[in-house]
Amino acid sequence: SISDPLVSLSLVKKADADNHLIIRLTEMEGKDKTVQITLPAEVKKVVRTNLIEDEIETIPGNGNVINVPLGHHAIETFKLIL
Q1: Deepest of 11, 18, 44, 70, by most Cβ within 10 A of its Cβ?
Q2: CA distance 30 to 37
Q3: Residue 30 has what pLDDT?
Q4: In terms of pTM, does the model score above 0.90?
């Protein structure tokens, strides 16, 4: 689940290069925010990637609830290492 109704989960898929999970979020309100995502499985690491899944930065957090930053009108991609 996603804590903000104005953030859309637009993609869930297996990563191209490995067996990790890719999610893509879209911020639709036009405000910078941090969104809480609750997952059915525990995450060991969260990595922000670009659209072609090149790793950009590690986002602090693990467990089944993670917080990810989103810019206004952003489309952000994250790799979840389970």
Answers
A1: 70
A2: 19
A3: 96
A4: yes
